[in-house]
Structures are given as structure tokens and as C-alpha cells.
Write a structure and sequence with these properties.
Elements lengths: L1 H30 L1 E5 L13 E6 L31 E5 L6 E8 L4 E5 L2 E4 L2 E2 L2 E10 L24 E10 L5 E6 L12 E2 L4 E5 L21 E2 L3 E11 L18 E2 L2
Antiparallel strand pairs: 1-2, 2-14, 3-4, 3-14, 4-12, 5-6, 5-11, 6-7, 8-9, 9-10, 12-13, 14-15
Membrane topology: Single-pass type II membrane protein
EC number: 3.4.21.89
Keywords: Hydrolase, Membrane, Plasmid, Protease, Transmembrane, Transmembrane helix
Length: 264
């Protein structure tokens, strides 16, 4: 009898330990850092498919989107800190609720326009300096198996060949710089009307400028449009782990040079 009671007590303690661990993990994820796996190439070459990072949820304060499934009992934002232009931000899509990661280009009151692939921010073109080429293998990437878009003979590049894009260093007012990729300058998203960012909203773009559904595209055509402040989840600060394969267990595809790399 004593043995059965001891066994039952051991099971109860194990269950309690698991519950406590889940509660602690949930609190940590809600208040401090959320894991995020990069599923697409819209932020190349700042972030690659298969990069794993933690999103700093303390950076901008908290909203209902700070909790999984947008279940935080919060109205608006609490302990709000204004994001800065150039931040790489994870946010909840205003329509479908998916988590997106893009670079913040325009803050409330800013005007944003694209001309020939160049960003015109508040009437001034953001300087772009050539920074060589971004080269990757033309092959299916990550669990989704997407093929990259290429600048070099896009229709003729075969599997296993080198896929290249022009790379530029773009600089924000104040001197913050980061790299962007370009394939052409003739697409709709390379030449746009002037967007005026409404109060309480933000304008985002992917660094892989010709392969990103972002604020240049309205929500009706699969883009994100202007993103409300409430939908911000956190700032991407550092890559913790990276794998080029379709599974993180394929250790031979790990990118050790990206481990613990700061997100610029």
C-alpha cells in the first residue's frame, strides 16, 4: 500500500513539474523572447531561410498579440516604446494573423515612395551603394521547397547553378545602414505612388526587394498594407542558429558562421 501511495505521489510530482515548466516557458515566451523560424526569402541576405532567432518582445511593449493566438487581455499597447526606422520587426498580419518579419521603413506621418527600386522617404532618396553580388545555389530551399528568384538569366538558371542578385548598402537618415537585394527596377513594387503612413501605423518592406509581400502591396492582393502599432510583436536582434536544409537535424547543412550573429 505504501509503495502504491509513493508511486501515485511520484506521478503527481512529475505532473506538477511539467505544469510548472510549461507555465514558466509560457511566461518567458509572452514577456521576454519568442522563437521565430525564417520560412521565406523575403529578408535575404539579412535573414536566410532556416535562420532561427529569438524576438525581443520587451522592445516595443505589449499588446494582445504578445500572447499566442492573440489572447493577451490587453487593449492597445502597454509600456509602449516607439520602434525606430531600420528595425527588423516581427508583427501579426492585420488580416490573416500570420507572423511576418520585415524591416521598418516608414513611421507615422512619413511619406514613402519607390522610384526605380529606390526608396524615397519624406521626399529624399535613401542612398544605395553597390555592395557586390549575393550568390546562392538555385535549388529548393527550406521545408517549403521554394526556388529563389535570380537576376542572372532568371528563366535559364538550372538547378545547382549559381543564382545571383545585385546587393546594395542602403542608409537611413541618421546613418543606419543595411543590405538590400535587387533583381530588376521595372516591377510594380519598384515604382509606386506616394504612401502616407497614418497615425498609429507603420510601413514595412523586405530586404529582398523583388521577392517580398509587404506594405507596398495592399491587403487585398496578399500584402500587409499599413501595420497598426497594436500588431507589433517584437524586434529581431540576433540569429541563434541556422540551417540550410529541410530539417534542422541535417547537421551537415548547418551554417555555423551565422550562429549568434547580430541582425543589422
Amino acid at each position: 500500500m505504501a509503495s502504491k501511495e509513493k508511486s501515485d505521489g511520484g506521478i503527481v510530482e512529475t505532473v506538477k513539474t511539467i505544469v510548472y515548466a510549461l507555465l514558466i516557458a509560457g511566461i518567458f515566451r509572452t514577456l521576454f523572447f519568442q522563437p521565430f523560424w525564417i520560412p521565406s526569402g523575403s529578408m535575404k541576405d539579412t535573414l536566410l531561410i532556416g535562420d532561427f532567432l529569438f524576438v525581443n518582445k520587451m522592445a516595443y511593449g505589449y499588446s494582445k498579440y504578445s500572447c499566442p493566438f492573440a489572447m493577451c487581455p490587453v487593449s492597445g499597447r502597454v509600456l509602449f516604446s516607439e520602434p525606430k526606422r531600420g528595425d527588423v520587426v516581427v508583427f501579426s498580419h492585420p488580416v490573416n494573423g500570420s507572423d511576418f518579419i520585415k524591416r521598418l521603413i516608414g513611421t507615422p506621418g512619413d511619406t514613402v515612395q519607390l522610384r526605380d527600386g529606390k526608396v524615397i522617404l519624406n521626399g529624399t532618396e535613401l542612398p544605395q551603394v553597390p555592395a557586390g553580388e549575393f550568390v546562392e545555389t538555385y535549388d529548393r530551399q527550406g521545408p517549403m521547397g521554394n526556388l529563389p528568384r535570380c537576376e542572372n538569366s532568371a528563366g535559364a538558371v538550372g538547378v545547382g547553378a549559381s543564382c545571383t542578385k545585385s546587393r546594395y548598402t542602403e542608409t537611413m537618415p541618421g546613418g543606419r545602414s543595411y543590405e538590400v537585394l535587387n533583381i530588376d527596377t521595372n516591377g510594380f513594387a519598384d515604382n509606386t505612388d506616394v504612401f502616407t503612413v497614418p497615425e498609429g501605423h507603420y510601413f514595412f518592406m523586405g530586404d529582398n526587394r523583388d521577392n517580398s509581400q509587404d506594405s507596398r502591396y495592399g491587403q487585398a492582393v496578399g500584402g500587409v498594407g499599413f501595420v497598426p502599432a497594436e500588431n507589433l510583436i517584437g524586434r529581431a536582434d540576433r540569429i541563434m542558429f541556422s540551417s540550410a536544409g529541410s530539417s534542422l537535424f541535417y547537421f551537415w547543412t548547418w551554417r555555423a558562421d551565422r550562429f549568434f550573429k547580430a541582425v543589422e
